[in-house]
What does this fold into?
Amino acid sequence: MSTPSTGAPPTRPLNVQARASLRDYNTFGLPAVAATLVRVASEAEVKRVVDHPEYGRAPKLVLGGGSNLVLTRDVPGVVLKVEIPGRRLVAETADAWIVEFGAGENWHEAVAWTLAQGWPGLENLALIPGLVGAAPVQNIGAYGVELEDRFESLDAVDLVTGRSVTLDAAACRFGYRDSVFKHDGFGGLAGKSVITRVRLRLPRPWQPVLGYLDLERRMVETGNHAPDAKTVFDWVCAIRRAKLPDPAAIGNAGSFFKNPVVTPEQCRDIIGRDPEIVHYTMPDGSCKLAAGWLIDACGWKGKSVGRAGVYEKQALVLVNRGGASGAEVVTLARAIQESVYGRFGIRLEPEPVIV
Ligand code: EPU
It folds into this structure.
């Protein structure tokens, strides 16, 4: 006689590893050990970690693709590695496709998948390393499009209460490479929640975003002034491959510093001294300066400090030349900050999260 079923599906044990190396889980390839690594493949598993007698109270670091992270030390407590899968069309209306992804989906594959389904809109964001769940954290952006321009809402689990919440764009407080998930002060959510699902809004009819200089150049070179979404995708991939290092080959975390925003007065002053400076005027009159240009102008391109270096083709990208430690990367970053401050009076702010 068979045992009567309780109706509840069997729960698999949590996937836990003690003293786990994080070297393969950060795109810089930096050495660090997590006291406890827990891989979470569903929202329910996140909640089980929160309810766990030991892991529930431990400090937590949420790890996505590790593409925006500088590890300078071993990580105590629990590292939550988000591996939540899923991709689906949630709604199709006259003015948008709404698509939903599990936070553990690879960002670039998600972009390619939407295009293959005939839902364009993410092509300018092709080839950005990392996972979908990390995209809202730093409001990823490239070639004239930022995540917030295509954002609908996200689901997250509160790491203290275990409750699920849904956040719209206003609640995410997006800024340039910034969101509520990067702040730990009042109302900030850094380290306090795990993003589990992200919904994106792809507007209809599709309109290409081609205002970025590198894309304008492609249009002139190819004579194609009305590219379709797949062509824009291919152009963005080619542009990125030409100037950004592939993390699979050379450890890096993309742009290491944000492009600094200065007042119109500061900008005039700097241009007066350095007329060549690359800058963009913002809608509010302030000025965004190209940090890569500033670093390049200080002579850093291709230089190294220890085993950390400045990428040869794009001075905004710091790289691991092989076997670098997080401390070496931070030492190099500080030296760059000092020389840019010394020459231009501008403080560069790191873009990745430094742990
Ligand atoms: N420049 C130099 N020397 C350098 C690097 C850049 O003179 O070594 C000049 C370039 O010639 C160009 C300007 O600086 O005129 C800007 O460079 P680029 O177009 O390569 O863009 P970026 O400002 O360096 C930003 C984002 C990238 C994004 C690109 C394209 C930030 C911090 N970075 O880079 O994002 O892909 O624009 O939109 O906003 C990332 O965040 O990790 C990232 C790669």
